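User: I'm new to structure prediction. If I give you an amino acid sequence, what do you actually give back? Let's try with this one:
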Amino acid sequence: MKFKWLLLTLFFTISTVLIGCEPLLVLDPKGPQAETTANVIWISIITMAVIVIVVFVLLVIMLIKYRASKQSEDYEPPHIEGNPIVEGIIVGIPVLIIIFLSIVSVKSVYEVESVPDGYEDQEPLVIYASSSNWKWHFSYPEQDIETVNYVFIPTNRSIEFRLYSFGPITSFWIPQLAGQKYAMADMVTKIHLAAEAEGEYLGRNANFSGEGFAENTFNVTALSQDEFNKWVDEIHSTADELTENKFNKLLEPGHLGQLTYTGTHLDFSPAPEGEHAGHNHGDENKSDSEAHSNNDSSEHANHEQHK
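Assistant: Good question. You get back a string of structure tokens that encode the predicted 3D arrangement of the chain. For your 307 residues, that looks like this:
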């Protein structure tokens, strides 16, 4: 009886707590990529719930049906051979579950890594998102503006974020619009998304990167295309220009509020892609070529001198 009341108390306590919780952002998608992720989570939850329920039901049946009975001390249970049907079920069903979840996972990975469905023929808006301790810098090369700790995007348009870091590895994450993607120092990674509803969304760094990690967040505002264009025009008429000196100060460790500039740091501090990728390998190759050229010239001069 006490056990029954304990279970009822636990049930009502958990129900009361869950009723007061806000909905999980990752399960409230506002774009196709986030919707794919949410669907995979729901499929996984339902699959695991079915497995748990079936296992507990079978456990109760086994405990009741095959519980120990009062037998004499010299009682010997009958010898039972293995049942191939039962063995096939207990091995085959887990294998089928793994295959099913693997197919769902692989299919969803390809979907979220590509341009959102319905936006394949649309030119994406490219935004460079770079992190530093503990800030996010958003560069719009097409609009020639840069923001800190906030980003505006137009709705119903494909957005391509190009990610990299000026410090430790971070993880770019907007739960209601897309999954997580790492931002690293010597390469650019890409994440595609689209916002299908106007509003404000929370973004953050989901990878621990030091003492300021907890506040390494940013705001995402989705506007109509007309409102987005007005915002761009307003920035060009009111914001200060971003200089190399100002940008170097922004890179210093610490927290900042939301800032806006005209121009981008890409002009004097390019992203690590193309010839600038991987410790400026393009420049190193150029330097090696120049060194070989100088060596050839020196050898030719020495040869002429001996002649």
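You can read the tokens as a compact description of the fold. Here is one thing that stands out. The chain has a mean pLDDT of 86.
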